[in-house]
Amino acid sequence: MFCCLKGLCLNGVFNTHPPKHVSRESQIKLQKIGHEVVIIKGGLRACGSGGALGSSPLVQSKSYFEVKIQQAGKWSVGLATENCDLNNVRGGQDSESWCLTSDNIVYHDKKEIHELVEQKPDSQEQQLTVSIPDLADPSTTTSTFINQTGLPQEGDTIGVAYDHVELNFYLNGKNLNVPVLNIKSTVYPVIYVDDGAIVDLILDNFNFNMPAGFEKIMIEQSLL
């Protein structure tokens, strides 16, 4: 646990309560967590060991959010119900979660649904750069090379798009083409971390364009 409390995580704030005057979108945060998980940065950064579930379900027709792999380790990102086991260190190990993991496999109920295949970008793609907004100060951006291998790495952004028919994952804005079907339950954003991984949940000011027709997660009116 100590390694979670140094480096990147020290930039966070342990008070996870939102400010008094916030938009509906900014009230969403990582809330329900496993026993060994630490949530900081206003409820948007996960480290430690285990899972963390978002506070609002994906109820609109087309929802999108991102996660950024701030520090490598073992991680999983995707969707889960309120009944998932957040004391697991890997997502997709029960019938209540659907996750892309750091071993490049999409899991559900301990079954491998898809395995990512490494791609060999040409020289032009390898030089692709993008300006990424800083999470703490969206007005500040940095230019960075974009990983085009098709396999997530430290520093990458994973997009998660869900339209109640398919769950799709994006790597730095590019569809990984590993759709997950037949998710019938009410689901929430979920992140699992272990072995030093630090992962940020991004709900607005996205690093990459959303797929056409998708929107950031909105809180249900009845929850306000």
Structure in a nutshell:
By secondary structure, the protein is an all-beta fold. It has one helix at residues 123-126, and strands at 30-33, 36-40, 45-54, 63-71, 74-80, 97-101, 105-108, 111-115, 129-133, 141-145, 157-162, 166-171, 174-175, 180-181, 188-194, 198-202, 215-216.
SSE topology sketch:
Layout: E1 30-33, E2 36-40, E3 45-54, E4 63-71, E5 74-80, E6 97-101, E7 105-108, E8 111-115, H1 123-126, E9 129-133, E10 141-145, E11 157-162, E12 166-171, E13 174-175, E14 180-181, E15 188-194, E16 198-202, E17 215-216
Parallel strand pairs: 4-17
Antiparallel strand pairs: 1-3, 2-3, 3-15, 3-16, 4-11, 4-16, 5-6, 5-15, 6-7, 7-8, 9-10, 11-12, 12-13, 12-14
CATH topology: Jelly Rolls
Can you tell me the overall shape?
Answer: globular
Number of domains: 1
Distance between the termini: 34 Å
What fraction of residues sit in β-strands? 35-45%
Spans with pLDDT under 50 lasting ≥5 residues? Answer: 12-26
* Overall radius of gyration: 16 Å
The secondary structure category is mainly beta
The helix content is under 10%
The number of strands is: 17
Task: Describe the main β-sheet briefly.
Answer: 15 strands, mixed
**What's the rounded overall pLDDT mean?**
85
Say what oligomer this is: single chain
CATH 4th-level superfamily: SPRY domain
CATH architecture: Sandwich
